Amino acid sequence: MDSTTTSNAASDRVLCVKGCGFYGSEETKNMCSKCYNHFLKTQIIDKTAKKLEGLSLAHTKPPNPSLSSSDHTLLEQDSGSKTLNAAGFDSDTGSRWKSRCKNCNKKVGLTGFKCRCGDLFCGKHRYATEHSCPFDYKKFDREILIKENQLIKGDKLAQRI
């Protein structure tokens, strides 16, 4: 009885369809486990690629007819006005941007502080009083308060009651 079950098991074994030399099974379409996993991955990738193609075609917008050709050229010029490459060089002029304190010319690197006046300063000169900052903080803060806090008026009827 043992000989018949072993002979049936040996006859059920089929070599992998992909030809890698391992045995496959009917559950994995006569492929070994490695080839079957690779097969599944390629199917998933193909399905997602088809879905993405369908989505990208459905969401494309036609060009805006209201913009004239001169508007397009202005937009292109504005977008490429100043670009820095990976080394920190300005692509237009070739000069390196400075990472030095505006007052003492000390190298600040990553520890530099950018002030609201637009300049870069070291830890000593980062405060507005230390570098005689032309930025008007008082006016700036008042404008913010005016925008955020609206005028509160009392009811006219409160005086009559």
TrEMBL record:
Lineage: superkingdom: Eukaryota
Domain A20-type: 10-44
A GO term for molecular function: DNA binding
Matches recorded under InterPro entries: AN1-like_Znf, AN1_A20_ZnFinger, Znf_A20, Znf_AN1
Alphabetically ordered keywords of this record: Metal-binding, Zinc, Zinc-finger
Domain AN1-type: 95-141
PROSITE patterns per the UniProt record, alphabetical: ZF_A20 (PS51036), ZF_AN1 (PS51039)
Role, per record: May be involved in environmental stress response.
Name of the molecule in the record: AN1-type domain-containing protein
Species per Swiss-Prot/TrEMBL record: Acer yangbiense
Taxon lineage: Eukaryota, Viridiplantae, Streptophyta, Embryophyta, Tracheophyta
